[in-house]
């Protein structure tokens, strides 16, 4: 099974510029996945979960806070 690639809007990131995985955005159920991990998306524009391989990335043209 191919690991999902989740496109995010900047407003979907938390105040620190990241997301948690597993995520409802990736259609995952918290009870049947891996431990919850924080992924910093704003720093590089994307982050890959070390457990499941899901890649979370900002959609083209999206910028978080002062990051361009």
Provide a descriptive summary of the structure in words.
The chain is mainly beta. It has one domain (5-58). 0% of the residues lie in helices and 28% in strands. It contains no helices and five strands. The protein is globular.
Keywords:
single chain, mainly beta, two-stranded antiparallel ribbon, three-stranded mixed β-sheet
- Between the first and last Cα atoms, what is the distance in angstroms? 33 Å
Helical run tally: 0
Helical content band: under 10%
Oligomer category: single chain
Low-confidence stretches: none
Radius of gyration: 12 Å
The averaged pLDDT comes out at: 87
Number of strands: 5
SSE series: EEEEE
Task: List the topology elements.
Layout: E1 5-8, E2 18-21, E3 37-40, E4 46-48, E5 55-58
Parallel strand pairs: 1-5
Antiparallel strand pairs: 2-3, 4-5
In summary, what is this structure?
The protein is an all-beta fold. It is built from no helices and five strands. It has strands at residues 5-8, 18-21, 37-40, 46-48, 55-58.
């Amino acid at each position: 099974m191919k690991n999902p690639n989740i496109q995010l809007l900047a407003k979907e990131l938390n105040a620190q510029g990241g997301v948690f995985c597993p995520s409802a955005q990736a259609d995952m159920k918290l009870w049947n996945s891996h431990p919850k991990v924080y992924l910093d998306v704003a720093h590089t524009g994307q982050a890959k979960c070390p457990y499941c391989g899901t890649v979370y990335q900002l959609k083209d043209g999206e910028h978080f806070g002062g990051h361009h």
